[in-house]
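SAMPLE LOG
Freezer: B-3
Tube label: C17
Construct: single chain, 452 aa
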Amino acid sequence: MLHSNSLLPYLVATIWELPVAVAAGLLCGPFLRRVGRTLEYAGWVVAALLGVVAPLVSSHDLLHSAYLSHIIRSHSNVGFQLFRSLSQRSPISPPPYLISHHAVFINLIIDGYLVSVLAGLIRLLSSSVVIVTMVRRTTPIILDADHKAIFSVTLQGLGINNEVKIVLSSQIGSPTTLGFRKHLIIVPRDFVDQSDTEEFRAAITHECAHIRRGDFLHSVLIECLMLPVVYHPLSRVVKRRLSALREMICDEVALGAVHDRAVYARSLLSIARRAIEVGAKSYPIPSFIDSNLQERIMNIIANASRPTLIKRSISLASAALIFCLATGADFWGQSFFGSNEGFVPALYSVSSSGRVYDVGGPVKPPRVVRYPGIPRLPADFPIDRRPFRGYCGISAIVSKKGRIFDIRVTHSAGAELDAIAIRSLREWRFSPGTRHSRPVATHVEVMMQFGN
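STRUCTURE (predicted):
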């Protein structure tokens, strides 16, 4: 389990690192397209990985959660507690009245993020259930000699040795492919009767190309990969682009069997027209006809000539340069936001101290450079309780710049005195703790006594 301090740095990092990755994919796309759609697809996969995995690097808390500071969520009134601290130190819950507005705000952000990820996971699982239900309602198909010959030649030509079956379904409007090892090509119930030979060849070759590439597995893996950033609008852009490229790559494979681009484009439009007329239910799986139909038709008709070796080399070099710049922007952002405590001040008090160390070994404690004195008891403090012998125990974090954050009470002296002690501690100034002579964020424990 991860702590909210681990999630927040990752969440903040994805807000800006995913747009950087998408921008890299958009800029590299035209260059990689000149070399081939397959390479453009690979470029977008790299962009997706960059947008999801790179924030892990910038949020060191995810990799070093044993050193994280402790934010107690049980009193935050957010509604439910999903994570517990991984720290070795015993978390002691502060009284509810000491929870800062920042902590409640951060907890709301974290819970909202977790709800979005949970909703994405539920949507993925429910889609799987819907697909399984649809597959169970399919019926086998009996192909005539001509269609069977086309199917056999297509499988042999693409080198597909796994078991592939064609089945009928009244619940879809266009052909689609499912399966990992045993594959199903699901076609509409009247597809074979209403399609001519060229339409059947185009659709079956296209779906067999998906099987040859393992696109169903790719789509599932991409859905799982994008779950951590499902809240981000650009995650849909990445998934849509990858889906469109898979279809266009398989179109190019199918063109090798149909040969005539105009015939293949007419077949595509004819199948799309019938799918619209049928008005079949839409399923969360790639199909022969999808939302990028116009781009696919334009790509089929374009008939672009293959670029020369020099142009391909220049395109690859340009794309590599753009990805290097995007990676450099990621690392620059990590160093900038990781060291700038002014970045999102409302969030900084909780998470941007980064890795937090316990004092000991190479970690030296912070030093107090300004001490305003012992906090005084309030004037209306009962005389029968004077002199006051108690104390208020406080745990906090001193950042790399000597600022104190995440204050919590570990030993209460009473609501009024706790508030005085916290107010007094905020006036202290520290020089930061060090590790191998470099400033680091450290835990501190303070025992506040009161002057009578």
